[in-house]
Amino acid sequence: MPMNFDFSEESRREIWSFLHQQLEAYYAHTADRPVAPPLEPAAIRNYLHTSFQQALPAEQALRHVLDGLDRYLVHTPHPNYYGLFNPRAAFPGILADTITATYNPQMAAWSHAPFAVEVENLLVQTFGTRFGWQKESCDGVFTSGGAEANLTAVQTALNHVFPHYASKGIRGAEGQPVLYCSAESHHSLLKAARVSGLGLEGVRALPVNERLELMPEQVEAQLEQDLQQGKRPFMLAATMGTTGAGAFDPLGRLAALAKKWGLWLHADAAYGGALALSPQHQYLLQDLHLADSITFDAHKWMSLPMGTSMYLTRHPRILDASFRTTADYMPKEASQLDITDPFTHSIQWSRRFNGLKVYLALLMLGWEGYREVIEQQIRVGQCLKDELQKSGWLLYNDTPLPIACFGKPHFAQNEGAALALSQQLIQSGQAWISVYRIGGINSLRACITNYATTEAHVRETVALLNSLV
């Protein structure tokens, strides 16, 4: 008789009980662990089970996985993780992922998951209007991450500017299509250029000013030069809160430039877009409504599990023009209804119900909960900057976001000083920070990504840094 893939009801109850105890212990006591593990590839590979001939008892299998994660993982939910935009997952998001895995909705066809699809449609409109667009013009799709959202932006820009791109590809363009961004923009744009057939020669990653912002005059000068060489400018990508230093490109001036030259204007607001949830700080996004499309990652400042991202646009027909296809085997029960099947509207076909993480978090925490946590993290970030400056550290970036790029005077003469210090800190197991290069200097970079990080945590971390210098 075949194995029961459902397990018995009694077994499931026991397994759930065991797993709940283990996960609750981790979630409640993450701060008791070293932030980062020793990097030992051989030890990790030797730890793995390499034979699957014999099934393990459920508890043994779960212990193996949980112990492996506990020992060999950078614990991004730790309050002393100051690295990339990988926050602690808010509990409603964890619940949503569990619900989604259990129901396992098929998101390709509206008729297979009408509740799930309509939840995501609602969220697209909700965030589109939060970002300043009219409700009736909002369209978009949930994506696996900011990289897919940025790839979607490149695809929609190409289809908007080159009407025959969907059928002829890059060959249908008269001249090399070119997109413009800053040297501080996310490198997923370079991947998108490769995937879309532009190649790296189709990307102009332009120098920034002393505030690390893209300069419109620099864009226009390069654009005019490209036109003289027979190239076809088609897209301008601005960043609202760069990954490295938290810089905001001047979106209003870039929008005027995009309009003048007929470019698609994309705003990568993967991180900074959450400022729309804080009345105190939403002025930083005052021109966001001028963008043709927006990338927003809810798995960053909304503290939701990976990957919960959105591509949004104010051009309601462009996703259809870019991705519509037909397939005889797809469900047709809703073909006479006023609906859109998601598979005709996005890069992905079958995909996860990522929108539930956002929906359930908003139901349980509300806009007010997010306002409070965003403003709290900005306050903690300011505390970090203040404590660093009190201790004689130099700040190399100027941003209202809780991101600090900092160093000591000797960093300018010693290329390896920042990396050596960050490695010392990481190896201590007490905190995790990264290294970022600004103005030719390797700086230390710390970002408040965790709603559980307090001013006491950052003071302890600065004291630790001081002791290592």
TrEMBL record:
<dbReference type="InterPro" id="IPR015421">
    <property type="entry name" value="PyrdxlP-dep_Trfase_major"/>
</dbReference>
<dbReference type="GO" id="GO:0005737">
    <property type="term" value="C:cytoplasm"/>
</dbReference>
<comment type="similarity">
    <text>Belongs to the group II decarboxylase family.</text>
</comment>
<dbReference type="InterPro" id="IPR002129">
    <property type="entry name" value="PyrdxlP-dep_de-COase"/>
</dbReference>
<dbReference type="Pfam" id="PF00282">
    <property type="entry name" value="Pyridoxal_deC"/>
</dbReference>
<keyword id="KW-0210">Decarboxylase</keyword>
<feature type="modified residue" description="N6-(pyridoxal phosphate)lysine">
    <location>
        <position position="300"/>
    </location>
</feature>
<keyword id="KW-0663">Pyridoxal phosphate</keyword>
<dbReference type="GO" id="GO:0030170">
    <property type="term" value="F:pyridoxal phosphate binding"/>
</dbReference>
<dbReference type="InterPro" id="IPR015424">
    <property type="entry name" value="PyrdxlP-dep_Trfase"/>
</dbReference>
<keyword id="KW-0456">Lyase</keyword>
<dbReference type="InterPro" id="IPR015422">
    <property type="entry name" value="PyrdxlP-dep_Trfase_small"/>
</dbReference>
<dbReference type="GO" id="GO:0033983">
    <property type="term" value="F:diaminobutyrate decarboxylase activity"/>
</dbReference>
<protein>
    <submittedName>
        <fullName>L-2,4-diaminobutyrate decarboxylase</fullName>
        <ecNumber>4.1.1.86</ecNumber>
    </submittedName>
</protein>
<dbReference type="GO" id="GO:0019752">
    <property type="term" value="P:carboxylic acid metabolic process"/>
</dbReference>
